Amino acid sequence: MIRDGDLDPNWEFGVGALWFDGSQGAVTGPVNVTNALIEQSPYEAVQWVEGTVSGVSLNNVTIAGTGTYALQEQTGGAATFTGVTATGVGASSPVYNCEGGNFVVTDGGGNSGISGTPSCGPWPAPVYPPYPPSGVTTAPSALNFGSAATGSTTVAQTVTVSNPTNTAAPVSSIATSGDFAQTNTCGSSIAANGSCTVSVTFDPTAAGSRTGSLTVNAGGVTNSVSLSGTGVAPGPILNATPGGLTFAGTVVGSSTAAQAVTVTNNGTPTPATVSGSPPPVTSARPTTAPPWRSVPPAPSMSPSRPPPPEPGPAR
Predict the structure, then answer these.
(1) From CA 186, how far away is CA 196, in angstroms rounded?
(2) Any idea what the Cα angle at residue 39 is, between residues 33 and 45, rounded to 5°?
């Protein structure tokens, strides 16, 4: 059941896509609802109203999108829920129940999205669920690559192309415009309920704001993704290797062997102008001894006094 149910203009509340009415007499069941899909109900998905309704069993029921409640219990009775799942419920609570214990629920297990404190109060304005996609879609709807030097290529960003239908979607074309390029994994068709990826790069050819688009034609549907980026003027990017030099201890006044530093321009093909000159290298020897070297004074001798004679034998 898709988009079933409506507003009751007399009572001013929603009528469920599936509803049980005991106004003409008590409903005692058994009533089994099995393997059902209730999708995009504008109001509640399942409703119990008037009289007494019991003996209802919901088994493997999927509720996908409601404007108000998943379950709207407006009368006394009983129901068993087994494998009931609810998503995309518009109201703050998935269940409406002002009957308290007069409506008895048996949890058969495997349920999700239908628990919590029931709502009881004024009818909420419905939040209509969006229509499900009926053809090939792309996401995101736009890519921005920021700034990149002209002549360079950015890291790729991706766009997912999805086919939510139950048949394969043939791919007619995938193309980019402007300073953008693409590669993709889509091939000639996208499998039913499958997806593929488009990788987009930015290759600015001029400075300033650059725009373009990615256009995907598949499954008879055309999707467009906006592309943007900013080109910046080229310029040198200098890197020095190694980042530092270490020299061994060297005697003052002497010179070590030279060590080399390689300067590389990793920017766009623009020469880097070298200006200035290195400071002069001097090798003058010091006129004084360094503090860590001591020079002993030379011994003094007087040339005017000869040394004393050697003593002779005793007389």
Answers:
(1) 5
(2) 60
**Strand pairing category for 18-21 and 142-149:** unpaired
The set of long-range contacts for 3-10, using a CB threshold of 8 Å and a minimum separation of 24, is 3/39, 3/40, 3/41, 3/42, 4/38, 4/41, 5/41, 5/42, 5/43, 5/44, 5/45, 5/47, 6/42, 6/43, 7/42, 7/43
Neighbour count for residue 27 (Cβ, 10 Å): 20
Residues 6+ apart with CB under 8 A from 191: 163, 168
* Cβ atoms 282, 253 nearer than 8 A: no
Which has the minimum average pLDDT: 4-8, 26-30, 161-165, 246-250? 246-250
* CATH code, residues 137-232: 2.60.40.10
Q: What is the spatial distance between Cα 229 and Cα 148, in angstroms, rounded to a whole number?
A: 8
Q: What is the DSSP string of 160-193?
A: EEEE-SSS-EEEEEEEE-SSEEEEES-TTEE-TT
Cα–Cα–Cα angle for 171, 224, 178, nearest 5°? 105
- In 3D space, the residue among 108, 17, 124 whose CA is nearest the CA of residue 64 turns out to be 17
The domain ranges of the chain are 6-107, 137-232
Q: pLDDT class for 297, splitting at 50, 70, 90?
A: low
Residue 250 pLDDT grade (very low, low, confident, very high; cuts 50, 70, 90): confident
What distance in Å separates the CA atoms of residue 200 and residue 133, rounded to the nearest whole number? Answer: 24
What are 15's two structure tokens? 């009528």
What does DSSP assign to residue 110? Answer: -
Q: CA torsion 306→307→312→315, rounded to 10°?
A: 70
Token reading at 175: 């193309």
Give percent above pLDDT 70 in the chain. Answer: 83
- Please give the Cα distance from 179 to 157 (Å, whole number): 14
The answer to whether 95 touches 119, Cβ cutoff 8 Å, is yes
